[in-house]
What we know:
The structure holds two protein chains of two kinds. Chain A is α+β, with helices and mostly antiparallel strands. Helix content of chain A is about 25%, strand content about 35%. Chain A has two domains: about 1-235, Rossmann fold; about 240-290 and about 300-355, no CATH class. In chain A, a hairpin with a 2-residue loop joins strand 13 and strand 14. The longest helix of chain A is centred in the middle third of the chain and has 18 residues, at about 170-185. Chain A is elongated. Chain A starts with a strand and ends with a strand. The relative contact order of chain A is 0.11. The mean pLDDT of chain A is about 90. By secondary structure, chain B is mainly alpha-helical. Chain B has one domain (about 5-220): Orthogonal Bundle (MetI-like fold), CATH 1.10.3720.10. Helices cover about 80% and strands about 0% of the residues of chain B. Chain B is globular, with a radius of gyration of 20 Å. Classes of the chains: A alpha+beta, B mainly alpha.
Amino acid sequence: MLELRVKKRFAGRPDSSPFSLDIEFRAGAGVTVLFGPSGSGKTLTLEAIAGFVAPEEGRILLDDEILFDAASRVNLPARARHCGYVFQNYALFPHMTLRQNLAFAAERRPRLERHRKVNEMLERFHLTDAAGRRPHELSGGQKQRCSIARALIGAPRLLLLDEPAHGLDAPLRAEFYDLLRQVRAEFAIPTVLVTHDLDECFELGDEMLILREGRLVQSGPPRVIAERPANVEVARLLGIFNLLQADILELNPQLNLSRLRVGGFELAGPYFPGRFRGDHVWLCVRPDQLAATGRNGAPGANQVPAQLVRVVEMPQSARLEFAGEMRVEMPRAEYEKQKQNKEWVVGFPQQALRVL
Amino acid sequence: MPVDWFPLWLSLKVALIATALSLIVGLWLAYLLAHRRFRGMEVLDAATALPLVLPPTVLGYYLLVVFGRQAALGRFYEWVTGSPLVFTWQAAVLAAMFHAVPLLVIFARAAFESVDRNYERAARNLGASNWRVFWKVTLPLTRRSILAAAILAFARSLGDFGITIMIAGNIPGRTQTMAVAIYDAVESGNGALARTLVVIVSVLAVVILSLANRLVARQAAS
């Protein structure tokens, strides 16, 4: 279990605006994903945990051991923290072979055990054949496996990964996800993963923390966050929602009903607890929850006429982009049936509507 | 005409020892300046570059003051080694170091700062002490630049005249290095000897320079 509460400030410089990190969270077993845009303080948080940078305030606890505590002036050096760290560019020592890279990391283990442990890790991560090669002679997948093996060989109590899949092509990415799932199953240590890739959060994350400008804006399991973003900010960061400005015209808790005005049209939605009539809100709905169909006479209930701007055909689905920042996603087969439509209406399923 | 080879051997000996000692001092200073943030850093930074801008005779004068037989450091040296420092070949080593150390600090510092700091972080993260990080990661990653710098420092050490003449003097067979011997030969009207010595030094300099260049080029290629 990792518990962390840290603050760190950076004064503005001519080439950078001032930045402050102020964050608090716990990370238990499983994979905790730190998600956020670049410059949100994800990597800085990881570096504070590893002991590469010292925060100004707060404390960091790992399994009840104090790694850092500003109040009692405890600041364990990086070498004593026993955190495995996988760097964004892997940082494999270029002047050492793969085997030497692992041996360097195994130095902590008893002498007799070292050699055996290195061989065991080489085998486990399918690196035995490449053991004599230097990093620049390795494939991307081998480098990745080596960096994870090197981080794990010293039996760390925590695994920290800084955008490990950044810049990898799709097959390598899939390989990496499998590898990390294997690691999670076999090593069972808490893992903190930094990424700005949303797919990665869903692939690997048990818990997800969303950072923005050095602050935590929402946390929870990825699927829950995707269902219920806490506010417009989070919804924007996730980038998977339609966000439409709306006014609440009517709220009826008895019938679980509401009426909204969206761009000149009225829609029926569920009752929104804690909202008032006349509130100006953001309607938040995922593109796959909307239904786009051909217009047949007057629009039906909860349908809005819309002007198609662009279609992006993806391998399994099609994304229809309508005027007014509205996107609808539908399966390819469905799109094939609909593609002849000249005029469109977009249907808003009543119970899928959420406001922020 | 028989050439007295003593000045050449003395110069080589002095330069070699000065380079070895300068490596220890220079790499340590360079590492401090490249990695640590401490008070007085700017002062140290300026102090290491000072010998490059001060006239050698001025440096020599300072050293004479500090290491003279009446001065505290001079007496300390005499107490430790049993003989005075000034006007010995060891003083020539000290003189040469004042050329070699600043050069090494400048080059080694640039080399240390060019190392991707994630390598050093990775090493510390894997449990390595600062000492081990330096020997196993930082130094191997910069060894060619540092070797090239050491060669230049060696060449520079060979050529000192100003500081050497101030604190080691011009004692033939004892403290007369190449540079001093050339001056001495010209001074005493021995043009033939001066020419011979000049040619030897020039050839040596060209060989050393090409060696350093080749090392740097290979570093850049790898």
